[in-house]
Amino acid sequence: MMDINEIREFLPHRYPFLLVDRVAELDLEAKSISAYKNVTINEPFFNGHFPQHPIMPGVLIIEAMAQAAGILGFKMMGVKPEDGTLYYFVGSDKLRFRQPVVPGDQLILAARFISCKRSIWKFDCRATVDGKEVCSAEIICAERKL
């Protein structure tokens, strides 16, 4: 389990772009992570997306999955951003949205390591709400030394 203070050690993101509230499970042997984002009406994006029918933008769901995958990658390598390593989100394959995410939802983020070739990491990611899949994708990140 990782709380927000430890998460901030592994992700360079800060409010309003830090989209992982807690890591519930991290299994380095299985190369997988389970984390969550509590979605509240106080999120700044709800002011314009959409005021009368607030839904979480899909790109932010993808970003939340990528952040969970990033934590997994950092933990697998045993490094932190302060050590001079960053992951850049560079793409996704097999992206699917299945239902909207609204205020009050708890977005469960799951990522599993697939491969790493020439500093390009690939993760199988899923986002669920109440046990129903809302988004899935293979997230591709580039590892870069600063």
Automatic annotation (TrEMBL):
One of its GO terms (molecular function) is (3R)-hydroxyacyl-[acyl-carrier-protein] dehydratase activity. It holds the Pfam family FabA. Its EC number is 4.2.1.59. The active site is at residue 49. It is an enzyme of class 4 (lyase). One of its GO terms (cellular component) is cytoplasm. GO terms for biological process: fatty acid biosynthetic process; lipid A biosynthetic process. The keyword Cytoplasm applies. It catalyses: a (3R)-hydroxyacyl-[ACP] = a (2E)-enoyl-[ACP] + H2O. CDD domains: FabZ (cd01288). Keywords: Cytoplasm, Lipid A biosynthesis, Lipid biosynthesis, Lipid metabolism, Lyase. It is found in: Cytoplasm. Gene3D superfamilies: Hotdog Thioesterase. Its main location: cytoplasm. Belongs to the thioester dehydratase family. FabZ subfamily. Involved in unsaturated fatty acids biosynthesis. Catalyzes the dehydration of short chain beta-hydroxyacyl-ACPs and long chain saturated and unsaturated beta-hydroxyacyl-ACPs. HAMAP family: FabZ. NCBIfam families: fabZ, PRK00006.1. This is 3-hydroxyacyl-[acyl-carrier-protein] dehydratase FabZ. It comes from Stutzerimonas kirkiae.
